[in-house]
Amino acid sequence: MKYLTPLLLLLFLPTVLADGQAEYKYREGVMEAIGGQMASVGAIMRGQVHKENLLIHARSIAELARIVPDIFPEDSAVRQSEALPAVWENPEEFKQKTEDFIAASDEFASAVESGEGVGQALQKLGGSCKGCHDEFREEH
Prior knowledge:
Blueprint: H1 4-18, H2 21-47, H3 54-65, H4 86-89, H5 91-114, H6 118-136
Helix pairs in contact: 2-3, 3-5, 5-6
């Protein structure tokens, strides 16, 4: 009995991976985490609450941004995803957008750390998110 569960998982796992569901679920979690961090940053900036946590959120966004280029493998284009086919049809353009996001998130974290140009860096970060979403994400 103790070997039955691992055996069933091994039999089931290739089916999940074959249709990209595992990759999709992982990507969904990462993107939701980024969105949550951005929402927290917005609340801090608008309401000046928990200002002491701004750097934590900025660094979290920057760290998560680094894995974004790797969470859109070709086999993860599943039906329920918000990712448009353009992600895989225009890989060079998508790569550039992810690089822009990484750079903007690093700039934002640096601005928060130094205390200078935070608003401007946040606008650039938001612009990098919007730039990618406009071309590569289905809006609901």
